[in-house]
Amino acid sequence: MQELKLFDDMTRLAATGEDTSQRYLQWEVEHRTADTKHIYRESMRKMQGKRPFLTKMGYLGIGPVEGKSGDVVAIFCGGRIPFVLRPLKETTELGEFSYIGEAFCNGVMDGKVTGKEKQTFWLT
């Protein structure tokens, strides 16, 4: 709505021959800065309890703050959301993991990674 008012004001001023560039720049500073602050605040709110990570394969992601080196990012068959899992070192069997939390992983979401070997494992 503010954009329509600005357009109307600029059209009216331009019709009188007035240079509107300074006025437009001032409007941009006042209004776009507020939008940027809102977007930043909202992003930070959504990021509470999360931190960035980089997988061995070079995928950048965001996961639980409890995540640490050695954790695994996995997508369950039929799923679209990757999860952070931690291998259980105290077990002698391979393929046992504990659940750490959900993650966002660029390049892995929504089935973008295909052809990877399927593996059976246990969550405890």
From TrEMBL:
Pfam families: Het-6_barrel. This is Uncharacterized protein. It comes from Fusarium redolens.
